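Hi L., both proteins are below.
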Amino acid sequence: MNRSDRIRDILTETFAPSALEIIDDSHKHAGHAGARPEGETHYTVRMVASAFEGMNRVAVQRAVMSALQSEFDLGLHALSIKASS
């Protein structure tokens, strides 16, 4: 299972989103800090989930980052989050 699939599984299980898009941006960061030759280090997540209702932007960001901590521990370097309820 690749990192995109793991991210999808974690976010789906944690937030039950009505819309979820995961984009591997690693190729755009080749040679930059945190980039690895094999890729899978830089991602964009676009998500709509009712779980975010009543949460401000910072709280949403923290919740998503916390849910994906295991992926950061395994080499995920950067995550752009575009999330709403």
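That was the first. Here is the second:
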Amino acid sequence: MAPLQLTVQHPDYDTVQVTIEGSLDLARAYDFDDSMRRIERDAPGRVLLDLRGLEFLDTTGLARLVALRRRCRRTGRRLVLVRGSQAVQRLFAVTAMNEHFELIRDPAELLATA
């Protein structure tokens, strides 16, 4: 499995964009969680999570995304996910999580509304 890599950008004053590459699975889920908690400390109003580079996502990784969603809702942040590969989107669909996340096809869709 590919290692997990996060790239963080700040496309505007109120948005943090995190691009995920590699695998978000049991071995890497809590590292992802720790990284996201550090990012959240900067208190961005919007978190844009780009899943297009995600090669593999298991239920543990999905649970960390759900935890991120819960934290964002609790603190009044907007969490938006850029759709991933067919395999990633299939996991979202099978678990009905696609109904609980705001999903877009391209980051420009969100950034155009800034």
